[in-house]
Amino acid sequence: MSMAVVGMIAGMALGFAGYFGGFGAFLLVAALGAVGFVVGRFLEGDMELGDFFRRRDDRRR
Question: Which of the chain's termini has less CB crowding within 10 Å, N or C?
Answer without folding.
Answer: C
